[in-house]
Amino acid sequence: MSANLAANTEPALISASNLTCIREERLLFDQLTVEVNAGDIVQVEGPNGSGKTSLLRILAGLSQPYEGDIFYKDQLITQSREEFHQNLLYLGHLPGVKGEMTAQENLNFNLTLHGLHINASEIEKTLAEVNLTGFEDSLASHLSAGQHRRISLARLYKSTADIWILDEPFTAIDKQGVQSLEQLFKAHIKQGGCIILTTHQDLLTFSPAQVKKITLDYMGE
Q1: Which pairs from 123-126 meet CB under 8 Å and 24+ separation?
Q2: Phi, psi dihedrals of residue 154, rounded to the nearest 5°
Q3: What's this model's pTM, rounded to 2 decimal places?
Q4: Phi and psi dihedrals of 67, rounded to 5?
Q5: Nearest of 133, 143, 200 to residue 169 by alpha carbon
Q6: Alpha-carbon distance 37 to 8, whole Å?
Q7: What share of the chain is helix, strand, coil (3-state, %, to 5)?
Q8: For the chain, how many helices (H) and strands (E)?
Q9: What are phi and psi of 93, to 5 degrees?
Q10: 31: left (phi over 0), alpha (psi -120 to 50) or beta
């Protein structure tokens, strides 16, 4: 496996040393070192079952590695947990949308959980960014999988976190939606943020040189 990440004189926003992950008695990755700096976009790639989601959850502090440590600006995340989580936005593979709530209520609920309070007009504008104009008051249970994903992704437009960890953010999103999201990614890293993501497709508007890779390809038994 490889983690082809460039060095930086500033403390890495998020880093990890000697990560080993075992799931159901199967070794997914071993002695993995990661360094993600401000301005980086990092794609985690590998075949299904190689540990991509497990790695994202470990980096986000949601799962524990078998061995290894995670650092936020050179401090163990266990020692800077509050600051780390305030500066982290994690979107999992599932959109995390509540069917009994409207699109507007879902977005407002998730923003509030992260300490962000915006008025109804701003909620509507944010949903418009993800092409959900006219669906603000629709129950999520009446919306499609793609619309659920867009409700989840709308949080990115209001996020103040520097670190975005995104598991398959392009799932159920059309080509126009992917391009809009990539423009948001570019703005985020230009402002000093970083993005770690998994995706089964190439990033359309980034050159290969702009996207750093972590490849999980351990083939052990």
Answers
A1: 126/154, 126/157, 126/158
A2: -60, -25
A3: 0.91
A4: -145, 160
A5: 200
A6: 7
A7: 30, 25, 40
A8: 6, 10
A9: -65, -35
A10: left
Token code pair at residue 200: 């089964």
SS3 of 121, please?
A: helix
Q: Which residues contact 46 (CB under 8 A, 6 or more apart)?
A: 1, 52, 215, 216, 217
Hunting for tokens 């159920």 — which residue is that? 172
How far is 203 from 170, CA to CA, in rounded Å?
10
Q: Can you say how many angstroms the Cα of residue 11 is from the centroid of all Cα atoms in its chain? A: 20
Q: Strand 14-23 vs strand 67-72: parallel, antiparallel, or unpaired?
A: antiparallel
Q: Is residue 174 helix, strand or coil?
A: coil
Give Cβ neighbours of residue 102 (< 8 Å, ≥ 6 apart): 136, 137, 138, 139, 140
For residue 81, the 8-state DSSP code is H
Angle at the Cα of 127 from the Cα atoms of 45 and 184, rounded to 5 degrees: 40
Tokens of 182: 């990539």
Q: What is the pLDDT along the chain (221 residues), one digit of tens a residue?
A: 445 454 457 899 999 999 999 998 899 999 999 999 999 999 999 998 999 999 999 999 999 999 999 999 999 999 999 999 999 999 998 899 999 999 999 999 999 988 888 899 999 999 999 999 999 999 999 999 999 999 999 999 999 999 999 999 998 888 888 999 999 999 999 999 999 999 988 898 999 999 999 999 865 44
